[in-house]
């Protein structure tokens, strides 16, 4: 298996995988250009790796029985073809697995859902604002399909939206939440965007 390209690593978190003590693997690379991105160093897919995937596996081997799970975050983890193999390797070590994703690759998300215990799913905006927020044409349609797949899978999850009134209005935020509820989303969290942004 080609090793996962690791852009960062957190050895212990209590907040990124609900109810579990976990490590976080930050995967290098993201094709979107959201203006408020808080991990811009992870955007370039060809940036030098922060550490090797093997070093992560070695660390996890030493933490068996001490950690409950491993979170794959980013960047966008599903950008990397090595993700399914990495998830399988971590599960074989006895860890639960979580994924933070923006849902930009529906087919790749479908392939890894059977390997996941929890998903943190980013909903960037209402459909009419998606392309402007992500600076990527067609992004909203792909996310809608990924959300359908996630809801149908039965995998435990939470949807999150980073919001600033420079992105879209408060009324639109409320309508977004109502729309998600109608689709079957039971947990949706709004987190404040702490950077000034131009209105999309």
From TrEMBL:
One MF annotation (Gene Ontology) recorded for this entry: 4 iron, 4 sulfur cluster binding
Radical SAM core domain span: 16-200
Keyword Transcription: no
Keywords per UniProt: 4Fe-4S, Iron, Iron-sulfur, Metal-binding, S-adenosyl-L-methionine
Domain of life from the UniProt record: Bacteria
CDD domains (UniProt xref): Radical_SAM
Cofactor: [4Fe-4S] cluster
NCBIfam families according to UniProt: NrdG2
Protein name: Ribonucleoside triphosphate reductase-activating protein (NrdG-D activase)
């Amino acid at each position: 298996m080609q090793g996962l390209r690791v852009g960062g690593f957190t050895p212990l978190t209590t907040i990124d995988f609900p109810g579990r003590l976990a490590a976080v693997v930050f995967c290098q690379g993201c094709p979107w250009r959201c203006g408020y991105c808080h991990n811009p160093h992870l955007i370039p897919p060809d940036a030098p790796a922060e550490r090797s995937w093997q070093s992560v596996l070695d660390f996890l081997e030493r933490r068996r029985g001490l950690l409950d799970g491993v979170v794959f975050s980013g960047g966008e983890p599903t950008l990397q073809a090595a993700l399914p193999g990495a998830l399988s390797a971590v599960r074989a070590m006895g860890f639960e697995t979580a994924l933070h994703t923006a849902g930009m690759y529906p087919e790749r998300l479908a392939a890894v859902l059977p390997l996941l215990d929890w998903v943190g799913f980013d909903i960037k905006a209402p459909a009419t604002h998606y392309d402007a927020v992500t600076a990527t044409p067609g992004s909203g349609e792909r996310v809608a399909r990924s959300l359908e797949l996630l809801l149908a899978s039965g995998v435990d999850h939470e949807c999150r939206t980073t919001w600033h009134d420079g992105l879209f209005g408060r009324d639109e935020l409320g309508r977004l939440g109502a729309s998600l509820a109608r689709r079957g989303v039971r947990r949706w969290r709004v987190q404040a965007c702490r950077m000034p942004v131009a209105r999309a």
